[in-house]
From TrEMBL:
Organism whose genome encodes this protein: Felis catus (Cat)
Residue spans of biased composition, Basic and acidic residues class: 1-13
PANTHER family, per the entry: AGAP000124-PA, INOSITOL POLYPHOSPHATE 4-PHOSPHATASE TYPE II
This protein's name: Phosphatidylinositol-3,4-bisphosphate 4-phosphatase
Coiled-coil stretches: none
Keyword terms of this UniProt record: Hydrolase, Lipid metabolism
Length: 965
């Protein structure tokens, strides 16, 4: 029999925006004193001496928590505990938390209703693995046992903030037991002894005494406004678990979205548009070409313009999504959202355990960066890029083959030129300005800056590529006939068709031409250096003479300046500095202009070769790479900012940040089977491309604290802003703008039924090579870490951690080629945490497998680092993965499927705010994640799938089933 509460108007929770919260009509309510951004109220529950309705039947109880807002009469279901089985004295591990935005006052009434759950598994959808004749269990649902209620003010003002309330039957008559409500404050120092906790549920007792002092380092309250600008819509859960020495630890699980999900893609797309517009312009300015190349260029430009339009359209679409912070898994194939990462969240576990410092454990959970709209029929980036390069290299006479390294080099030089030329011009003008003011000090300073930049400029061209590109372009001009057409077939390093594919670093098919005057470039290039030397010598002379010192000097300090020029200066008795320097500056600018012109054209010609081959595939490949990279970068920036904020008070971390850089470890759960092979190939390239990213911390000058990206495809700088107070406390190197590097590594272990197929009938080599390659990268990072961190830090570090042993263990596990060897993931994650790194967990959608993995990781940390009682490991795991049972769903839920039937999303992919807030206090954070994505509180697994999962990756009964994903 299912018992319904009488008179309860069950509605979703309605959040009032905070400013209105105190002002509900004519009423004035007493706010709860709160710490910014911390939950307003958190409590735990336990029952005693419950009376079973039927004798000799063990009770399986849960408590449902409802709220009666003071201005309303209606009851709003808020959350519920987990089910505790087989005891009259249940002690609930799942607590209740009211986040800072929730409209709760001292006058708010809380109703606690205790139910006896007869069958907690009836929600699990039976699948084909069940015998067909087997009917669902006849006895489903739960029975009402009793209720109690209290006002928030009563709880807060009670002795030791603890209430023991009688539970009564619905007519308010009979007492059927007691319920204890105890306020919890994270970060408090445990005062009382949680004595007599036994793993025997019958004997569980609750530690209810707490004293309060919040450790600064974990709460990091100073940082909150900044994190709030980035993190949105937090979902919180509170638990308490016993430790092996029978004390309680408290755990707050928090899951938040990030507006960086949209902000970073928008920044990046704008940057790509700028870069591509500039390249298209340079292609147009390439000058006259012979008909073959000219046609190619026209074709390339048509496609490139189309591409820029496409990026602009995507940006326009994304710009409409103002304030969005979440892309659901069901939108992963949407074209306009392709640059946005799927289901990106910070998953945070805050642990307060006795005798230990409070600790935070963060993992970024996100769908594997992949180009879902383009699909995976032909594989992912790793394969596509390799194939593209192989084919391009063997195209014969139509194009000149430049290796990817040389193409990247050409882009780098072009970018350097574009940056340096205007800088030099500015410094040259400043020098003239100093000259006109006749100020020796200012002249010296301006000269110093001018010299530095000009030297960099000259250095930028010290590359064979520029010479060969000049020759190639020469041959492509009308009349510039190549005597020996460039072809890999003419190369001495040519490979025979039957040979294995040559390595990527093969020699380029760069032309050689006997008529070409190579020295001409040398002369043009050297002129820049010469004219700088001339300026230096002139300035020296002018200052020397101005100081009235005797003697004229010979004007040949640097040995390279033109003696006639210098002589002409020193013969002037009364110099006008400006007049003396002006012609020299003009010469420098002219020489530079000549170099820039030639170099730009020739290097643009190199880029033309890459683009001209295999249009439009080449551009689609760039698009795919941009998409995957954008998703990966959004996650990385989010992870970096969170890591920075949570570790700002740690000098060791800050030192590591600027001397070594940060390890960023990705755990992949993709299978090497079917489409997920392509996803893994995309993900591997996307993550590896993150090496091109460096961070820079700058002082925030306004309220806009969102990061800014500069650079171009081969090299990005992400500027992260910190408020002045925090910025000031940073090490000098960071404040001076030193670039902070990241070392991304990916370890993948497929765990589902698809991976079983791959292992039995397919191929797992992709996973093996990714793990092997990334192990080498991780080892490299460790070596740099050991070399660069100070010896005293290292000796302390080594005392605490056996990193060498862990690495060796990881290596052995990778070599072992064991099936579904999840030990690899645990070891890689542990190493990352010990190295102060940033952790990521990814599967296709980051909702089902990722939720299993991240909750397992949390409980394993509690076991290994916080002495979680071993008999509570599985219970803790189940609590974190759990969902409300059917009876606890709101009326808008479909009881058959657990899926929401009303509260339809307002847009295709965004979770409506009302719905989000309603849901944010139901069971474990990760089931909320599933709900956010597919509007259904069920992990998308069936029993057959779960049989293939490693044991600890299986969710509890009642939490999984058929879901329309
Ligand atoms: O979050 P995921 O684990 O990628 O979700 C998978 C789930 O593991 C699988 O069992 C199910 O059949 C679906 O394919 C889920 O992916 P969706 O992207 O369809 O949510």
């Amino acid at each position: 029999m299912e018992i319904k509460e009488e008179g309860a108007s069950e509605e979703g929770q309605h959040f009032l925006p905070t400013p209105q919260a105190n002002d509900t009509g004519d009423f004035q309510f007493t706010s709860i004193q709160k710490t910014p951004n911390e939950p307003q109220l958190e409590f735990i529950l336990a029952c005693k001496d419950l009376v079973a309705p039927v004798r000799d039947r063990k009770l399986n109880t849960l408590v449902q928590i409802s709220v009666i807002h003071p201005a309303e009469q209606g009851l709003t279901r808020y959350s519920s505990t987990e089910i505790v089985e087989g005891t009259r004295d249940p002690l609930f591990l799942t607590g209740v938390t009211f986040p800072s935005e929730y409209p709760i006052y001292e006058e708010t009434k809380i109703k606690l209703t205790v139910y006896d759950v007869k069958d907690k598994s009836h929600d699990t959808v039976r699948t084909s693995v069940l015998p067909e004749h087997k009917d669902p269990l006849p006895e489903v649902g739960r029975s009402f046992l009793g209720y109690a209620s209290f006002k928030v003010g009563e709880l807060l003002k009670s002795k030791e903030q603890l209430l023991a309330l009688s539970l009564r039957t619905s007519d308010g008559g009979k007492v059927v037991g007691t319920i204890e409500v105890s306020v919890v404050k994270m970060g408090e120092i445990e005062d009382g002894e949680a004595d007599h906790i036994t793993t025997d549920v019958q004997g569980q007792k609750c530690a209810l005494v707490c004293e309060c002092t919040a450790p600064e380092s974990v709460n990091g309250k100073d940082n909150l406004p900044f994190l709030n600008a980035v993190l949105k819509n937090p979902v919180c859960k509170l638990y308490r678990f016993p430790t092996s020495d029978n004390k309680w630890m408290r755990i707050r699980e928090q899951m938040s979205e990030s507006i960086l999900s949209f902000h970073i893609p928008k920044e990046l797309i704008s940057l790509h548009i700028k870069e591509d517009l500039c390249r298209n312009q340079e292609l147009k300015e390439l000058g006259e070409l012979s008909p073959h190349w000219d046609n190619l260029r026209k074709n390339v430009l048509t496609h490139c313009d189309q591409m820029v339009n496409m990026y602009q359209d995507i940006l326009t679409e994304l710009s409409k999504e103002t304030g969005s912070s979440f892309k659901s898994s069901s939108s992963k194939g949407e074209k306009t959202l392709e640059f946005v990462p799927v289901n990106l969240h910070l998953q945070r576990m805050h642990v307060h355990s006795p005798h230990l410092k409070d600790a935070l454990y963060d993992v970024i959970t996100v769908g594997a960066p992949a180009a879902h709209f383009q699909g995976f029929k032909n594989g992912g980036l790793r394969k596509l890029l390799h194939r593209f390069e192989m084919e391009r290299r063997n195209t014969g006479y139509q194009f000149i083959y430049y290796s990817p390294e040389n193409t990247a080099k050409a882009k780098e030089v072009l970018s350097n030129i574009n940056q340096l030329q205007p800088l030099i011009a500015t410094h040259a003008d400043l020098l003239l300005n100093s000259a006109s003011q006749h100020s020796p000090d200012s002249l010296k300073n301006s000269l110093k800056m001018l010299s530095e930049k000009t030297e960099l400029f000259v250095h930028a061209f010290k590359d064979q590529l520029v010479r060969s590109a000049l020759l190639a372009l020469y041959t492509a001009r009308p009349g510039g006939v190549l005597k020996k057409p460039p072809s890999p077939k003419n190369s001495t390093e040519e490979s025979c068709p039957q040979d294995p594919p040559p390595p990527m670093r093969r020699q380029d098919s760069i032309p050689h031409h006997s008529d070409y005057d190579e020295e001409e470039w040398d002369r043009v290039w050297a002129n820049v250096g010469k004219s700088l030397n001339c300026i230096i010598a002139t300035v020296d002379k002018l200052i020397e003479r101005d100081g009235g010192s005797e003697g004229g000097g010979d004007g040949s300090k640097d040995g390279e300046e033109d003696p006639s020029l210098v002589d002409s200066i020193i013969t002037h008795p009364r110099e006008d500095w400006y007049e003396q320097l002006y012609p020299l500056i003009l010469t420098l600018k002219d020489c530079m202009g000549e170099v820039v012109n030639r170099a730009k054209q020739s290097l643009t010609f190199v880029l033309l070769q890459e683009l001209a081959y295999s249009l439009p595939q080449c551009l689609m490949l760039t698009l795919r790479r941009d998409i995957v990279f954008s998703q990966a970068l959004a996650g990385l920036v989010c992870g970096f900012i969170i890591k920075l904020h949570s570790s700002l008070h740690d000098p060791g971390f800050l030192q590591q940040l600027h001397t070594v850089g940060l390890i960023v470890q990705y755990e992949g759960l993709l299978s090497t089977y079917s489409d997920e092979i392509g996803m893994l190939e995309d993900m591997a390239v996307g993550i590896s491309d993150l090496k091109k990213v460096a961070f820079k911390i700058i002082e925030a000058k306004s309220n806009d604290v969102l990061p800014v990206i500069t650079g171009r495809r081969e090299h990005y700088v992400v500027e992260v802003k910190l408020p002045a107070r925090m910025f000031e406390a940073l090490p000098l190197q960071i404040k001076e703008g030193q670039l902070l590097h990241v070392y991304p590594v990916l370890f993948n272990v497929g765990i589902n039924e698809q991976q079983t197929l791959a292992e039995r009938f397919g191929d797992v080599s992709l996973q093996e090579s990714i793990n092997q390659e990334n192990f080498e990268l991780l080892k490299e990072y460790y070596t740099i870490f050991m070399e660069k961190m100070p010896p005293d830090y290292i000796s302390h570090f080594q005392e605490q951690n056996d990193l060498k042993g862990l690495l060796e263990n990881l290596h052995q596990n990778i070599q072992a080629k064991k099936r579904k060897n999840v030990e690899i993931m645990w070891l890689a994650a542990t190493i990352c945490r010990k190295l102060n790194g940033i952790r990521f967990t990814c599967c296709k959608s980051a909702k089902d497998r990722t939720s299993m993995s991240v909750t397992l990781e949390q409980c394993s940390i509690l076991r290994d680092e916080h002495q979680l009682h071993k008999d509570f490991f599985i219970r803790a795991l189940d609590c974190m993965r759990s969902r409300q049972t059917q009876g606890a769903l709101s009326e808008s839920d479909d009881p058959e499927t657990g899926c929401l039937t009303d509260n339809k999303p307002t847009s295709r992919h965004f979770y409506p705010v009302a719905l989000l807030l309603v849901s944010s206090h139901l069971e474990g954070c990760r089931i909320e994640n599933v709900l956010k994505n597919i509007k259904c509180r069920k992990y998308a697994f069936n029993m057959l799938q779960l049989l293939a999962f490693p044991k600890y990756y299986r969710p509890p009964e009642g939490t999984y089933g058929k879901a329309d994903t």
